[in-house]
Amino acid sequence: MSKIERYDSLVPMLTGLLIDAPHDLSRYSNFIALLYQNFPIYTWIGFYFLHDGHLILGPFQGRVACDAIELGRGVCGLVVQNGEPHIAKDVRLLENYIACDNLTLSEIVLPLQIRGKIIGVLDIDSYILAAFDQVDLNGLQKLLNILSLSLNGQFAV
After folding, report:
1. CA distance linking residue 119 with residue 141, whole number of Å
2. For labelling alongside 57, which of 7, 26, 28, 68 has CA 20 to 30 A away?
3. Cα separation, 62 vs 43, whole angstroms
């Protein structure tokens, strides 16, 4: 199965998980678990939420992670500042990179928006160099859009 097909196959599964979720925390947690189970190249996946000028660790799967990230620091902090997703094909080349896991080689970070406002980021790491590309960005954005709709109470896929 191609990456595009794999992302597309997660749409009905994610919809099923989110539609009757009792709480937003359940939505975030199952979103992370579903992706982690279906993409073995992910070594870490989680949310960081904007709170008092920092990004605070939310639901995740993988190794222990950084608790808080200052805005403007690391890939996550930059994504919040500029509002654009970022693919780091080789994190070792980034001056501002925060290494929570020294084995990580590549990373993709997307802003999480509710009602047009950034509330945090989705952060995914891999031990594989250049693990992420435009296909991942498109697939993850599609899934994040479904999550955002469910968090907005406007769930209609």
Report:
1. 15
2. 7
3. 6
Q: What is the mean pLDDT of residues 97-123?
A: 91
Q: Give Cα 62 to chain centroid, integer Å.
A: 13
Contacts of 124 (CB under 8 A, 6+ apart): 35, 42, 44, 45, 107, 108, 109, 132, 140
Q: How far is CA 35 from the centre of its chain?
A: 9
Cβ–Cβ under 8 Å, residues 130 and 106: yes
Whole-number Å distance between alpha carbons of 51 and 123? 16
Contact 32, 18 (CB under 8 A): no
Q: Which amino acid is it at 102?
A: N
Contact 123, 56 (CB under 8 A): no
Q: What is the pLDDT, as a whole number, of residue 132?
A: 98
44 touches 125 (CB < 8 A): yes
**Per-residue pLDDT tens for 44-59?**
999 999 999 899 999 9
CB 112 within 8 A of CB 47: yes
